[in-house]
TrEMBL record:
Domain HTH araC/xylS-type: 169-267
PROSITE patterns, sorted: HTH_ARAC_FAMILY_2 (PS01124)
One Pfam family matching this protein: HTH_18
Protein's name according to its UniProt entry: AraC family transcriptional regulator
Molecular functions per Gene Ontology: DNA-binding transcription factor activity; sequence-specific DNA binding
Length: 268
């Protein structure tokens, strides 16, 4: 992407066929059709009226896209992200990183599509406006608050379980930070000051898999991205991920995917 931001349409034929790490951030608006979107393993079902915010550095994977899929995409650079979020409450930004999806219907969706998205399209194309950049930033901030509002309303409806979801969010953030060095549930339970049993039960209840499965699945996701996006040798990748050696990495990868790292890379 050239420049700080770009608004365009993404269809089924444009979707990557393998997991990829985002260099830029994106607002995604599903205009029609449907698709399964995975962000750092979290699954979202996008249909008409879905709006989702993707942060730079997150890993995306699309699956089961409908032929008629049409997404409006507002992509923005890491630097422009700071401009969007500058002066916004840091707790809101942190909250939205984990609760970044909203689904609108009826008049609400008409308002999002025909007001916010339309305004963003107009100002993104208004190159003659000396305040174009500032206007685009404020359009993004309005969208940010609309998604935040919807997400927080849904979050409060289940606030009786808020401690459980907060623990889940902290666990996922910690794994993303430390997965190269630590892959044991005991380590994360200790860091989160809970028992291994409590952590595993909480992750099972909130995510639908065990804590160990989530850790291993995320490591595999990162390995897939590394295999596709770099020319590092398998041994170099093993070193980067702190595996004892190349053979151990190969066995680990094959156990979870059914193929060797070399075979997966050849699918590129």
């Amino acid at each position: 992407m050239q420049g700080e931001y770009l608004l365009y349409t993404r269809r089924k034929a444009d979707l990557p066929s393998y997991p990829c790490r985002m260099e830029n951030g994106e607002f995604l608006f599903c205009l029609q059709g449907e698709v399964q979107l995975y962000i750092n393993q979290q699954k979202y079902a996008l249909t008409a009226g879905s709006v989702i915010l993707v942060f730079p550095g997150q890993i995306l994977f699309y699956a089961d896209a409908a032929d008629e899929l049409e997404l409006a995409v507002f992509a923005f650079s890491s630097q422009f992200r700071h401009e969007i979020f500058y002066s916004l409450p840091s707790d809101k930004v942190s909250f939205l990183r984990e609760h970044n999806y909203s689904s609108f219907q009826g008049e609400e969706w008409d308002g999002i599509r025909n007001h916010y998205l339309w305004l963003l399209q107009q100002k993104s194309a208004d190159d003659g406006n000396v305040y174009q950049r500032e206007l685009v930033i404020y359009c993004c901030r309005m969208l940010f608050y609309e998604i935040c509002n919807r997400s927080e309303r849904l979050y409060r409806q289940t606030k009786s379980n808020h401690l459980r979801w907060r623990l889940k969010d902290r666990f996922i953030a910690l794994v993303i930070e430390s997965f190269r060095e630590e892959r044991s549930v005991d380590y994360y339970a200790d860091k989160l000051c809970v028992t291994t049993r409590h952590l595993s039960k909480t992750i099972q209840q909130t995510v639908g898999c065990t804590a160990k499965e989530w850790i291993d699945d995320y490591v595999i996701l990162e390995l897939k991205v590394t295999l596709h996006s770099t020319a590092l040798s398998i041994q170099e990748i093993a070193n980067q991920f702190n595996f004892p050696d190349q053979s151990y990495l190969g066995r680990y990868f094959k156990h979870h995917t059914g193929m060797s790292p070399t075979a997966y890379r050849a699918m590129k």
